[in-house]
């Protein structure tokens, strides 16, 4: 039993640090060491931004009828989305007043139609690894944002002790920022509380659906990507991305992250998973919790 527990601990201790006290020796390989931040990015922030905009806009347009209360407050951009919707539907079925005939796809179908692949959670191919993430349909080219790491974002020295106990989903960023990707227990309650705190009228500042089985953002499964092994090499890596302040307010409802402290004026930290090689349908995603790709 002790041997099994040791194997599980070794599988995540380098990247998912429940608490600083568990890593007092601060060995270099247990922390993400990056002399220059640019060395931790295999695609540009602009590419990440454009990918997120592309899929979020597609999700927004697909769910257009439910967005009426938001668009009523944003008349200057309503026409833009009407044009996007019209371009995706037959002209005879779409007009500016009635969208009841619009065909609504599942979020997974929107992801496939937009980026050419879908990802989903399933039993991992690794023994005793639990849930994993697979490319369930399509093909993912090298250098593609294939997933996002959801959760509550904690700045340095913010209270996360109780949330971290027995929690293997704490992601440590280069600068010490922590993201709690646990969708159960206290972590779940904290995320929901912060998300509802930050809502501005009809505008949601984050996505709560990753806490459920019905994902609104189909990319928000990155916390279930397993660590690589000698037999299963890493095919994705983590890349940090600070959401710019000019990110469209109507699309923030798809961001699966929220900051813990409401009074901190800073960019929202997100973490995306980027493919290190081409990945085919049926392959499981594997990351490396402590190796930085340079």
From TrEMBL:
Domain of life: Eukaryota
Domain (SET): residue spans on this chain: 115-290
InterPro entries from the UniProt entry: SET_dom, SET_dom_sf, SETD9
UniProt protein name: SET domain containing 9
């Amino acid at each position: 039993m002790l041997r099994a527990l040791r194997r599980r601990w070794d599988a995540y201790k380098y990247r998912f640090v429940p608490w600083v006290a568990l890593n007092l020796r601060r060995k270099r390989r247990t922390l993400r060491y990056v002399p220059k931040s640019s060395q931790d990015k295999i695609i540009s922030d602009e590419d990440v931004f454009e990918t997120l905009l592309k899929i979020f806009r597609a999700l927004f347009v697909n769910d257009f009828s439910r967005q009426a209360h938001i668009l009523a407050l944003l008349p200057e951009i309503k026409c833009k989305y009407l044009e996007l919707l019209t371009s995706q539907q037959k002209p005879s079925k779409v007009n500016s007043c009635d969208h009841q005939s619009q065909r609504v796809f599942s979020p997974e179908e929107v992801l496939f139609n937009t980026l050419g692949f879908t990802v989903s959670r399933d039993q991992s191919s690794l023994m005793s690894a639990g849930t994993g993430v697979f490319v369930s349909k399509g093909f993912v080219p090298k250098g593609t944002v294939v997933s996002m790491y959801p959760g509550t974002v904690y700045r340095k020295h913010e209270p996360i002790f109780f949330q971290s106990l027995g929690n293997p989903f704490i992601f440590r960023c280069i600068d010490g920022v922590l993201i709690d990707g646990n969708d159960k227990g206290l972590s779940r309650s904290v995320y929901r509380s912060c998300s509802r705190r930050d809502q501005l009228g009809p505008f949601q500042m984050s996505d709560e659906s990753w806490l459920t089985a019905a994902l609104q953002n189909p990319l928000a499964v990155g916390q279930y990507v397993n660590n690589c092994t000698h037999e299963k090499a890493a095919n994705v890596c983590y890349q940090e991305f600070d959401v710019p302040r000019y990110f469209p307010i109507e699309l923030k409802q798809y961001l699966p992250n929220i900051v813990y402290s409401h009074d901190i004026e800073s960019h929202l930290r997100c973490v995306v998973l980027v493919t290190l090689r081409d990945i085919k349908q049926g392959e499981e995603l594997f990351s490396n919790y402590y190796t930085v790709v340079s």
